[in-house]
Amino acid sequence: MRFKTNNKGEVMKAPSNRSSMTWFVGLAALFACSASACQSRHEAPSAPDQTTIVVRGSSNVFPLVETWAPGFSAAYPTYRIDVLDTGSDEGIEDLLAGRADVAMSARPMSAEEASIARARNLEIRETEVSRMGIAVIVNASNPISEMSFGQLAEVFSGAAPSWRAFGGPDEPIVIVRKVSGWSPDLFRDEILGDRGFAADAVVVDSKEDVVVEVENRPWSIGFTGLAEALPELARVSLIRLTNDRSGEDATYALSRPLYFYTVADSPSARPFLEYVLGTEAQEQIREVGVFPAHRPDDGTP
């Protein structure tokens, strides 16, 4: 899907063979005039000092750029952002080849990619722009609303078979989890440690399927991406998490970073980096189910 803004700053969509978005900066100013003046300015070529910022990479980061684009276009009217969802691997490849100014990535740059950058005399800057979180969910009829990391370990390892152990009814706990991917890997690392998932867990293929199963199983519990859980809160309930293992905020302990990679001395990428790390832009992305890059205990990106 390709996107651009109209004269009101609203998003207009047109079909495309690839999931992409193009934001044309400064259209509001172009059309904010009389009919005759607009006709003249509309036919004039783009300003020669307009700078295009080419952004390529992860589909997980793509919605964030879509969210940030209107505010950035208002703050930096001489810049045009061209964004394409190509995946983390291709985004970093394009950055290293000089085809992109910003690479969006859902993973850290690999040792091989860093080696390529050094061979090309490129100093690469890694910037954490947000964090993708895990949500623990239960069926909407379940009265349990808060659990600690230690309690989650008891549940998902199968050590606690009944909700009675946590102040609920004497009903068997049904565990739902995704078969593989970043969310079960992160959950295993942060919650289970050396323990494995319970052998009798209901295993599904996607984070969306976790929501469906938990909705349809009265005494079930599962975990999914926060972005997948938030739109479904009429069907399932979120568990408030507490970290009983360290002083780290529970929300951020169960999240992973999303990155921008840029060439360190890139003048075209700098304004966009400065904007997305600002307080307003960081708070805005909560709307799409991700967390600000900065942690609550330090207050800085």
3D architecture notes:
There is one protein chain. This protein is of the alpha/beta class. The chain is built from twelve helices and 15 strands. The chain folds into two domains: 148 residues, D-Maltodextrin-Binding Protein, domain 2, CATH 3.40.190; 121 residues, D-Maltodextrin-Binding Protein, domain 2 (3-Layer(aba) Sandwich). The longest helix is centred in the first third of the chain and has 14 residues. The radius of gyration is 23 Å and the shape is elongated.
Summarize the structure.
This protein has 301 residues and is an alpha/beta fold.
Shape: elongated
Name the beta content range: 25-35%
Radius of gyration: 23 Å
CATH architecture of the largest domain: 3-Layer(aba) Sandwich
Question: Helical content, roughly?
Answer: 25-40%
In round numbers, the mean pLDDT is: 83
CATH top level label of the largest domain: Alpha Beta
The total count of helices amounts to 12
* E-strand count: 15
CATH superfamily of the largest domain: Periplasmic binding protein-like II
What's the structural domain tally? Answer: 2
As residue ranges, the low-confidence spans are 1-46
**Class of secondary structure makeup:** alpha/beta
Sketch the topology as an H/E string, one letter per element: EEEHHEHEHEHEEHEHEHEHEEHEHHE
First and last CA, distance = 31 Å
> What is the name of the CATH topology of the largest domain?
D-Maltodextrin-Binding Protein, domain 2
Largest sheet: 11 strands, mixed
